[in-house]
Amino acid sequence: MISFTFPKSSPSTPLPQHQHRGPIRLGSPVSSAGRKRRIMSMQCNRLTAFLLLGFGITLFLTHTIVQQTTGQSSIEHISKLSKFLPSKTVNRWADLYVAEADFPETTYMTGVAGFNYFHNLYFANGTFLIVTSEPSSLPSYGINGILSGLQDPTDKWHNHWAAEEDRIMIVSPQEAKERMLLGKAAIRKSGVSMMFADIREGGQSSFLNHYYHFIGEMFLGLWRVVTAAGEIELPSRLIYKADSPDWRDHAGITTWFQQAVLPEAEIEEATIYEDRRKSGVTFLFDKIAIADRWAAHRAGQEVKYWNKANADLPSLPVPLTWMDPLRDQIKRLALAEGCDMKRKNPKVPIVLYINRQLTSRRLLDEDAEELIEEMEKLADEGVIEFYNEFMEKLPRVEQFCLAMKSDVMFAVHGNGLSHQLWMKPESAVMEIMPVTGFARDYAILGEMMNHEYYAIHYNETFPVEKWRKENGYGVDQGPDFHSPRITVDGKFMAGMVRKLVSTRINVVEPALPWK
Ligand SMILES: *[C@@H]1O[C@H](CO)[C@@H](O)[C@H](O)[C@H]1NC(C)=O
Ligand SMILES: *[C@@H]1O[C@H](CO)[C@@H](O)[C@H](O)[C@H]1NC(C)=O
Questions:
Q1: Model's pTM, two decimal places?
Q2: What spacing in Å lies between the alpha carbon of 97 and ligand 1's midpoint?
Q3: Helices assigned H by DSSP within 279-409
Q4: Cβ atoms of 318 and 226 closer than 8 Å
Q5: How many other CB atoms are found less than 10 A from the CB of residue 136?
Q6: What are the two backbone dihedrals, phi and then psi, of residue 287, each rounded to the nearest 5 degrees?
Q7: At residue 400, what are phi and psi to the nearest 5 degrees?
Q8: Which element (helix H / strand E) includes 128?
């Protein structure tokens, strides 16, 4: 039989024999110079102790005064800071298995239809269980706005209905016990989980295999609900109820984002979901945010007017800094790769034109030329630092580096405008569209980011008041939306840029919270 023995102490290398290991004895022989030094150092020690004591008292007093005068303690401030630390620093092994007697109730944190955030959500036999003795604490849309069921393959209208008990249910602790839904113990999944309930059904794709639909809708929505709950913690796992070909985008930006920006997050596909379902074990998700596109469409408010799953998200209030943890990750990576985020001249703002002329949705050639000429004039004049970029030709980190340092970004409607997510909040974004149409995708991102956003129709801005028809629904994209005949007036754009940079001359890149 093989037996293993473990060293009693930690398996660090023992000290070499010649090193002194006993207590340091003060009576060892020293020269008189050495003694003087020691006396001086003892005096120094007393001085240090005295200063430390003084410092401690001052800290205590100022803390008390701060508390009395502003009603806000510095302790509270410190506890706010600790929110930035990943929850992995707590001992996740200590409370991995939770006995039935200790089962906590589910808490609904916050959300909008299609994007909902819970603490202590259970998962057993393929079903999520909201265990609560207060169902009124849940949003009024109920399951309808949380999760969808499978499509009926015989339904030619491809309706998506709310999920039934084979996927999610709301139960009281009593009922869960009586129906033996939860078993005797649960396995805790700690940290923030994000679940993307989009799945391919029949011939229809889940939409997730397009970077914008992942980053600008599903992921951003879940990040929004977590930060709206006052929590700032990068996700520990991303759960797909979709198979691999259905959620990976062909350009590989989604997977790049996951691997580079969220390197600590586990990526779980439908297979893992199945494994958990079949395991016969109950799981307790500490913190889980669930995105479901069709739930947003069924139960959303603004969603139905715009046909955009994320249209209700801007209404969820978040701090201006809500994107910082993600942006800081990209920034650290970009800096490590040698990205220079500084302006060439500290008083000259950076303007980025995402050039899409190599694709089929583009500007008329002559308008495209004039646009660049006008921008180059501004650059020659020393008003802007100008970048005219075919993003698709740049290494990925360089694209993000450019976006992060830009004060103003503009482009024809397209995926490139997703890069506005990495600009500093309150930057400026202009989206060029054919004069006959409008789509709100990137305007929603702009609003969520608190950017100054403009839709551009040739030589004018297309103002918010005109975005809706009389019946409340968003105006149509129009016939030329995806055409190569989009027009823009370069001189008008130069005037806009001049105005937008004038208020951003003194903007500086914020420092990283820690290195
Ligand atoms: C597990 O789920 C299946 C399918 O929803 C259901 O038929 C079965 O009764 C469930 N088993 C238990 C123990 O709840
Ligand atoms: C904008 O362009 C249209 C069409 O060319 C023109 O009729 C109009 O006068 C222009 N407006 C301004 C303010 O230049």
A1: 0.82
A2: 23
A3: 293-299, 302-306, 324-336, 365-380, 396-405
A4: no
A5: 6
A6: -145, 120
A7: -70, -35
A8: strand 127-131
Cα torsion for 493, 401, 310, 456, to the nearest 10°? 0
What does the domain layout of the chain look like in residue ranges? 89-318, 326-502
Nearest residue (by CA) to ligand 1, atom 2, is 125
In the structure, what pLDDT confidence band is assigned to residue 321 with cuts at 50, 70 and 90?
Answer: very high
Which amino acid type is present at position 460?
E
User: Quick check: CB of 450 below 6 Å from ligand 2?
Assistant: no
Give distance in angstroms: CA of 376 to centre of ligand 2.
23
CB–CB of 512/328 below 8 Å?
yes
Quote the tokens at residue 380.
């020659």
The model's pLDDT over 410-433, given as tens digits with 9 standing for 90+, comes to 999 999 999 999 999 999 999 999
* Distance between Cα 459 and ligand 2 center (Å): 6
Position 90 confidence tier, pLDDT thresholds 50, 70, 90: low
Please give the class, per CATH, of domain 326-502.
Answer: alpha beta
CB 358 within 8 A of CB 392: yes
The answer to whether the CB of 459 is under 6 A from ligand 2 is yes
Can you tell me the distance from the alpha carbon of 170 to that of 185, in angstroms, rounded to the nearest whole number? 19
Say what angle helices 324-336 and 396-405 make with each other, to 10 degrees: 120
In this predicted structure, which of 125-134, 143-152, 352-361, 394-403 has the lowest mean pLDDT? 143-152
> Among 127-136, 207-216, 422-431, where is mean pLDDT lowest?
207-216
Report pLDDT digits (tens) over 439-472.
Answer: 999 999 999 999 999 999 999 999 999 999 999 9
